[in-house]
Structure to design on (593 residues):
């Protein structure tokens, strides 16, 4: 014993602290980090084999995996697109616009992956904001917040709800209803919508970087003159390369010598590099007509350029290995068979060769990619988020069928006719039988990284409870907060909300479950309402862009800065926490054991 803890408890403490340190300070994959933590706990004997790997066979983990297939059916039949098309409209005030946006997003996020919903809505909201005459930055943070608050409205809407409800069932043998959090979640959502409208002045009014669906006037593109170009020997003006449709020549390089300022009398030589800014689609057309090529390396013939290509837009994610580097100094283009055509940052034109720009999180990249380019590889997902998709669903009979399947799954589970896991299996099978998605689409939809983190989080919770850390922490909270159950509930939820700003909300839910459960039991109360409050608190992280994957999705497109989230997010955290504690204690009054 040392400081009251046994060796197993200290190993668990060091493992948890080490794991979160690695997640916060390195770019290691989260699933690998969680798997490593499980390995440490198993090898050191803190957990036996059954305990260490129980998370992988837990019903909540299997439920999440099966629900990925249900989501695939909804996505590929165009359910989300149908809702976007029919529900947004053209509201005449900001308050109505926020309401029109947040409510359907929240409803969708109650049943679908929050990330999927936000990824669909980002470019739609940017175009919609332009029609309304509102800066996209005024709507994209509300979009992300709505997805988080909507996710807590059902057990299947967000992973922490499933993991906490699963752990509760293991403890008590009683399964939570799929709609357990619906009333508290809807109340917090309503408070959140009203708060956003009231605090709209705290939302930044920023010019957003252009997306693939809008004008690309803030991009620059670097082109190269091949050695067999017919315009060699002519001046830029004579060749029609000085004044071009949709853009302007901002730099001209003779080999590596920068000619400033560029003039129309400058002669053209093989190997020259021309940097343009403006409408990229028109500049690319000009490049083809004038037999220029992308300047990723010296190309001696136009026949070397792959004309069977497409333009894709991507945003540099937080933790990306590309941050702090220039594409020209890496092998990124060669490794993935792409060419960086343009860079935009917070809506401001970068007057520099795109391949020489030192990248930052949130930068917008326009890349020339092969026609059948696969964006769903681990190395790309870890560094970039693509918004372009080749899968354009057709809205039709399949849309209605997939919606009915999803609704049937929720209703049957809510009425207690079948357990949620069985309902999820039946819904997934129905999606395949009625061809709402193909077998290949279903398998691609399963996110194994998330499942690994999910299973690992449950194992950490087991270790925290088995080693007595949960009891020790619960006693510590009671010593500080006294025996008032509302105060204890608020304290744990407050810490949970803060922690989830920096780590996975799934991990936060698993870590705080045993602490909240122990604290409630020591006070002599049924843990159920305490755990419902915990579900909501660990999914409501608003103050940092790294607090949720959906925040990271809107960070680049909205042209945000880190401080933008802090300014409004801290207040939102406090407001939603207060609403959470209030409504949970009304809907689920505390009862003594």
């Amino acid at each position: 014993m040392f400081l009251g803890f046994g060796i197993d408890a200290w190993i668990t403490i060091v493992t948890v602290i080490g794991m979160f340190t690695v997640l916060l300070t390195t770019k290691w994959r989260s699933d690998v980090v969680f798997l490593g933590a499980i390995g440490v706990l198993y090898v050191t004997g803190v957990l036996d084999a059954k305990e260490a790997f129980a998370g992988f066979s837990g019903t909540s983990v299997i439920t999440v995996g099966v629900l990925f297939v249900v989501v695939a059916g909804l996505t590929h039949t165009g359910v989300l697109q149908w809702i976007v098309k029919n529900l947004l409209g053209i509201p005449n005030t900001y308050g109505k616009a926020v309401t029109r946006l947040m409510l359907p997003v929240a409803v969708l996020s109650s049943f679908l992956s929050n990330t999927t919903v936000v990824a669909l809505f980002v470019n739609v909201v940017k175009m919609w904001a332009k029609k309304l005459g509102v800066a996209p930055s005024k709507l994209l943070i509300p979009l992300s917040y709505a997805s988080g608050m909507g996710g807590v409205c059902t057990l299947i809407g967000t992973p922490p709800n499933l993991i906490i409800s699963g752990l509760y069932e293991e403890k008590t043998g009683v399964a939570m209803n799929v709609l357990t959090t619906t009333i508290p979640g809807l109340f917090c959502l309503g408070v959140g919508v009203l708060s956003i409208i009231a605090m709209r002045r705290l939302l930044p009014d920023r010019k957003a970087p252009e997306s693939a669906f809008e004008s690309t006037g803030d991009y620059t593109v670097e082109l190269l003159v091949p050695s067999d170009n017919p315009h060699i020997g002519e001046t830029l003006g004579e060749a029609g390369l000085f004044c071009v449709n949709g853009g302007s020549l901002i730099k001209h390089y003779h080999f590596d010598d920068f000619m400033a300022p560029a003039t129309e009398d400058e002669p053209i030589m093989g190997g020259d590099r021309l940097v343009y800014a403006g409408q990229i689609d028109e500049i690319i057309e000009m490049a083809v007509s004038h037999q220029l090529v992308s300047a990723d390396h010296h190309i001696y013939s136009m026949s070397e350029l792959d004309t069977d290509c497409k333009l894709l837009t991507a945003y540099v994610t937080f933790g990306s290995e590309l941050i702090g580097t220039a594409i020209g100094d890496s092998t990124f283009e060669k490794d993935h068979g792409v060419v960086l055509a343009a860079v935009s940052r917070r809506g401001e034109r970068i007057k520099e060769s795109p391949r020489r720009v030192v990248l930052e999180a949130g930068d917008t990249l326009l890349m020339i990619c092969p026609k059948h380019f696969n964006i769903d590889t681990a190395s790309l997902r870890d560094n970039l988020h693509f918004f372009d998709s080749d899968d354009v669903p057709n809205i039709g009979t399949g849309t209605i069928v997939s919606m009915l399947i999803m609704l049937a799954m929720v209703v049957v589970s809510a009425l207690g006719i079948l357990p949620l896991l069985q309902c999820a299996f039946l819904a997934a099978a129905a999606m395949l039988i009625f061809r709402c998605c193909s077998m290949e689409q279903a398998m691609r939809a399963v996110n194994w990284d998330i499942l690994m983190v999910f299973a690992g989080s449950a194992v950490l919770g087991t270790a925290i409870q088995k080693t007595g850390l949960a009891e020790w922490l619960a006693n510590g909270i009671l010593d500080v907060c006294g025996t008032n159950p509302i105060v204890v509930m608020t304290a744990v939820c407050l810490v949970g909300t803060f922690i989830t700003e920096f780590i996975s909300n799934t991990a936060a839910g698993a870590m705080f479950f045993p602490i909240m459960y122990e604290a409630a039991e020591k006070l002599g109360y049924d843990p159920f309402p305490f755990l419902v409050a915990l579900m909501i608190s660990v999914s409501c992280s608003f103050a940092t862009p790294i607090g949720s994957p959906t925040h990271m999705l809107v960070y680049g497109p909205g042209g945000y800065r880190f401080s933008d989230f802090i300014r409004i997010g801290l207040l939102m955290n406090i407001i939603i926490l207060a609403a959470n504690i209030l409504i949970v204690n009304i809907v689920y009054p505390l009862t003594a054991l």
